[in-house]
Each structure stands twice: as C-alpha cells, then as structure tokens.
Amino acid sequence: MTKCKKLRKEPVWATVLFTAILIVMAIIMIYPLLLVLNVSLKSREEFLMNPSGLFTFKSFSELFGNYSDAFETMNVFGRLLYTVAMTVGSALISCIVITLVAFPLARNHFKGSGKVFGFILISMFFPGSLVANIFLVQNLGLYNNPIVLIIFWGFGGLTVYIFMTMQFIRELPKDLDEAAFIDGCGYFHYIFGFIIRLSMPILSTVFILKLVGAWNDFLTPYIYLIEDKYMTISTGLFAFKGQFSSNWPGLSAATFTVALPVIVLYIFLQRYIIDGMAAGALKG
Amino acid sequence: MKRIKQSRLKTTPLVNPYIAILATLPALISIVVLAMLPAVVNLAISFTDYHGVGQPFEFVGFENFVKVFSVRDAAVSVWDSLRNTLVFCVGVVIIQQALSLGMALIVNRKFRGRSFFRALYFMPTILGVSVVGFTWQLVFDPVSGPIATILAKFDKASPLLGQDGLSMALVIVVAIWANFGYAMVVYIAGLQNISDDVREAAALDGANGWQMLRYVTLPLLRSTLTINFWISISGTLAMFDIIYVLTDGTAGTTTFALYIFKMATNSSSNQGEAAALYIYFSIFVTAVMLLFNFLFRRKEETN
C-alpha cells in the first residue's frame, strides 16, 4: 500500500465534523448497553427512586445482588454448560460437514460435481417454512428433544459457508493431494488429517459465526422444546421475562449476563467475525 | 486395471469417485431435508386443514388460500400486516442504507482508531435479538426509561412502544441500530476495492470532495450498492424476531412475517392457513426482489 499524498487533504472543518459524527454515533451505539449495565447494578428500591442516575456503591454483595438473583432464577451455571455444549457441538459438526462436501466439489473429484454445486445453489431459493418444520419435528417424534438443536444448528444453514470453504480450498495446492494419495493416504484420512488443518483460517471463521448464531438464536429452542432444562441461555432470558415482571434491575442483570460472553468473544475475535460476515454477504 | 481405466478420465485418477460422493452425502442430505423438504411439505399442508400432530385432517383444496384474507386474527388482518411490512421495510432499508453508506465513507478515511469505530458500530450485529430487545425495552420504558425521563422534563408522557404509530417508528430505530453496522462493513469492503489510482487521477483533474463522491466513488460502488440493498430488503421483509421481542406485534407493528410466525406457532390455529400464507409470503418476496432487479438494471442502463 503506497501512501498517496497527492490526494487532496480534507479541510479542517470536515475533519471536525466527521470526528463529531463518529463520536455521536459511538455514544448511540454504546449507551443502551451502559444503561443496562448501570441499571443491573442498582437495587430495586434505588431504581424506583432514581431510575436515571448512576448506581451507588455500598458493598460488593449488594452491587452484584441482581446478578446472584438472576443466576439463581435462570440457573445460569447449568444453562451455560448446556448452551456451550450445544452451540460448540453443532458448530463443530457444521465445520466437519462443510469440509467433507467442499473438498470433493472444489477438486471435481467425481463426474457431475458441477451439477451437485448447482443443486446446492438452487436450494438457497427454496423458501423456509416454520409450519413444515414444526410438522416434521413433531411427526418424527423429535419434539422436546434437544437433538433438534444439533439438527438445525449443526446441519442447517450451510450453503453460504460451503461456498466460502470451497473457494478457500481451491487456493490450496493440488500437488499435496496427489502426493498424499500416491502415498496411499485414504480419502477421509486426508480430509481430516490435512484439509481441515489447512483450512483452519476459513473454518475458524465458520465456527465462530455458527457459534454466535446458535448462541443468539432464542427461537429454535423456544419453538421446538418445552422443558425448562432444555432452554439455552438466550431462550432462558426470553422465557423468564415474566419472572422479572417490572423488575428492571433483575432483567438487566440477566440480559447483561447473556450478552457478556458474546461481547468478550467479540472483543478478541472482532476481525474474524466482521470479515467473515462481510465475506459471507459478498459471496452469498 | 481399475487405475488404468480411471486415468483416462480427465478428473484426478487417484480418487475413487464413489468415496468422494460419500463425503458429500452428509451435507447433501442436510440440504434436502432441511432446506428443500420443508418447502414441499408446506405446499402439501396448505391444501389441508391440519391443526397439529395426531389430529385428523383432510384435503380442502384451495380453501385456505381464500380463507386467509377474511380471517381477522387478534384484530390484525393480512392486509394490515402487509401495510405494516411496507412501512417497516421502506423505513429500515432507506435510512439504514443512507446511514451505513455515510458512516462507511467516514470510517474508511485514514485516521487513528478506525478499526475501533468499525468494531463498535458492528457490535450490535452479534448481540442476540433477545438482548437487543430487552435493552431497548429498557430505553423505551414508559415509566423509568431515559426517554420517558426526558419527556417528563417537558411535562410530557407517552407509552412509547405502546403508542400506535410511534411504536413502528421506534421499532424501525431499533432494527437500524441493530443492523446498520453490517451494511456499513459491506460498504467498507466495497470502498476498499476501489483503487487509490482512480481517486488520485480524479484529484489531479481537480475534483473536489463532492465531485469525487458523486462521479468516482458512487459509480464504482454500484455492485456493492446493489448487493447491500438486496441483503437489506430481503432481510427486512423476513425480519420479525426483533418486533416479536419488542412489541409482540401490538400497536400496529405486526408485519407479514410476524403474522405468519404467530399463526404457525399458535397450536389452536389452522396450520393449513399458515402454510398457505407462507406460500403467499414467498410469492410476495419473490415479486419484490424481481421488481428490485428490474429497477436496478434499468437504472444501470440509463446511467
């Protein structure tokens, strides 16, 4: 990248104006979350008397009282464990299924692989239907069975990621394939031993996007599962809203608890997440 | 023997094609079962009066396709929901695209901290809908929310999300807040594809900032604009979860997608009608997208 000094420098008033816009927008983006954090640190009485002021510090146990309440009401620890297992499990399944299909298609390993690619492309134009999904889940006896989460999250919504992974695999050297196959390396052994490892840059993006998507999907568990213990953390937040009726500090603490893992993950992996999602848009 | 036979084919001779096909099966089966089968099942259900698992149902022909227009579910008709969809979609798409393009242009300048601002504006995109919904319910709380506090200073009060007319505007604000960062990132990716040479040449020819934008940047951003509008329109038409969390469709915020969602998840409603509505919905979305294609292509020709 060469610095182009010939480009006209922007006038001072423009710099000031743009910086002001940047800061105002930043405040609009961050304010609602700070509000939730602030309210979550207030006691209920404090919130009723002074809803808009900053929280006051009395003691740590009081400060995080809403959090311990929310953790108890929502059984956060157990639910977190369950949610992590379901989301990580299904994201891993997605990555494996995607690599398995992307490698043979990217390399044209069988006659008609182009047609299969077209078939996958066409599937994108089939409209989804909740009515049919509910019908299928209920009639296959999967209603209220947490396996539906793995099915929808792990095996659903793969198309865009298949294209992204295919594109990545095409850039990998073919010589390695041939060398490995001549040496007698089995097909699946090669995919799991080499292709998955070589495709880590794209697969880690797929994994993160799938993980965040599943983590935030509050509707799938809400629609197909009944029992409280099967609700993930996002769904739990939604389902337990009634128990926090007019208790904004409690609900704020619960909301912040659900948001925090995603925010932390985002702070560390924002480049992967943003680039991955933008790439998905431009290729999809 | 087999090796020799295969090597005549142009494809890699070292791979057994059947094993390669085997590898594609998990994905292909998932796509058939999860993406294609539901569309077929939905079509079948739309011709029946299916109410739920285990209940007897029979073939009713095209009855559902007519009935859906007369049913008045919770005082909202299909036509109301269509009008709401139009308001919601036009409001979100136009404001969101203008805002995200503007912010992309500002963020894409060379200055310190640009990746910080980019990340900050994008952040709501990865927050879950339930988190975004409750966060903004708190902001718009008619008693103790900050907006209510400001209104109270002017001796005014409003149910905000509960007020007809205003409610939709607020839902649009939240939808934009939650999603404009995504559109902005797509615009930034488009802007970074424009080479500095072109801009430099225009600058040497004496183009000022506005001329640069109008005659250099925007024309070169054409395909990104099309993609971004496409994503935004199709996404907004299908969006209902954020409305569901914010208002539950009260105060005139039930969009078409939300209307169908509520019908499909209501165990007492005729699933055949909900299925018929899904078919109308996909026809509606296809029509909008075809119209969009037609308009954007025409514009491309006139330019």
Question: Can you walk through the features of this model?
Answer:
The complex is a heterodimer of chains A (284) and B (303). Chain A has a single domain (75-283), classed as MetI-like (MetI-like fold). In chain A, helix 5 (76-107) packs parallel to helix 8 (147-155) and helix 5 packs across helix 11. Chain A has 284 residues and is mainly α. Chain A starts with 11 loop residues before the first helix and ends with a helix. Chain A is globular, with a radius of gyration of 24 Å. Chain A contains 15 helices and no strands. Chain A has helices at residues 12-40, 44-49, 60-63, 65-74, 76-107, 113-123, 130-139, 147-155, 159-171, 174-182, 187-198, 200-216, 219-224, 233-239, 248-283. Chain B is mainly α and 303 residues long. Chain B has two domains: 2-45, no CATH class; 71-302, Orthogonal Bundle (MetI-like fold). Chain B is built from 14 helices and no strands. Chains A and B meet through helix 1, helix 5, helix 6, helix 7 and helix 8 of A and helix 2, helix 4, helix 5, helix 6 and helix 8 of B.
